UniProtKB/TrEMBL annotation:
Residues with 4-aspartylphosphate modification: 56
Domain Response regulatory: 4-121
UniProt source species: Azospira oryzae (strain ATCC BAA-33 / DSM 13638 / PS) (Dechlorosoma suillum)
UniProt-recorded name of the protein: Response regulator
Phylogenetic placement of the source organism: Bacteria, Pseudomonadati, Pseudomonadota, Betaproteobacteria, Rhodocyclales
Gene Ontology biological process terms in this record: phosphorelay signal transduction system; regulation of DNA-templated transcription
Length: 200
């Protein structure tokens, strides 16, 4: 699914205005009249979402805050920008502490809002890239044998082949062979590259 700003607001005029505003700056969007409609479509598609959510904090039925907490419970890390009325600011501040990207008070400044949406979508793209790299590294780690993992751990604490051979009571030649296989599987050429690849 391509990145989009998902606008979830029970006020049709606001949905249309936001959709037009984002389109005028080249930002793709999708609109939803309720949290329930958004959830139904997302659950039915089974696809991973990319982009960000523009979410009215108060709506009939499930509120924006309830949807946010529900999505967090499902592990969805899409950046969320809350649209709030003046009286909802304390609630919005509390949502920031729980991991929301930002909140914008109505009436909002058009350009500032679109700028925040673009920043949220950029943040999501960086997060998706990080997750893809992390998944790729994990799949490479899963191919290592127990012995290769032991040797990798000793390499990562800076031990030389001779010390590793002594500790594991194997020949230096065996360490060199395992080291070569390990580096090949992990797609690195040096211990430094290996450490950089695995740093949190």
């Amino acid at each position: 699914m391509s990145p989009k700003a998902h606008i979830i607001d029970d006020d049709e005029a606001i949905r249309d205005a936001l959709s037009w505003l984002l389109q005028s700056r080249g930002v793709a969007s999708a609109t939803w009249p309720s949290a329930e409609a958004f959830l139904e479509a997302w659950n039915a598609s089974g696809e991973s979402l990319q982009g960000c959510l523009l979410l009215d904090i108060r709506m009939d039925g499930m509120s924006g805050l309830e949807l946010f907490e529900h999505l967090q419970g499902k592990g969805l890390k899409l950046p969320v920008i809350f649209l709030t009325g003046h009286g909802d600011v304390p609630m919005a501040v509390s949502s920031l502490k729980k991991g929301a990207f930002d909140f914008v008070e109505k009436p909002f400044n058009d350009n500032e809002l679109v700028n925040r949406v673009i920043e949220a979508m950029d943040a999501d793209a960086r997060n998706q890239e990080k997750q893809a790299i992390s998944a790729s590294v994990q799949s490479r780690l899963d191919t290592l044998t127990t012995r290769e993992r032991q040797i990798m751990e000793l390499i990562l604490v800076g031990k030389f082949n001779k010390v590793i051979a002594d500790e594991l009571q194997i020949s230096m030649r065996t360490v060199e062979v395992h080291r070569a296989h390990l580096f090949e599987k992990m797609g690195v050429r040096t211990a430094v590259e290996l450490a950089q690849l695995l740093k949190p």
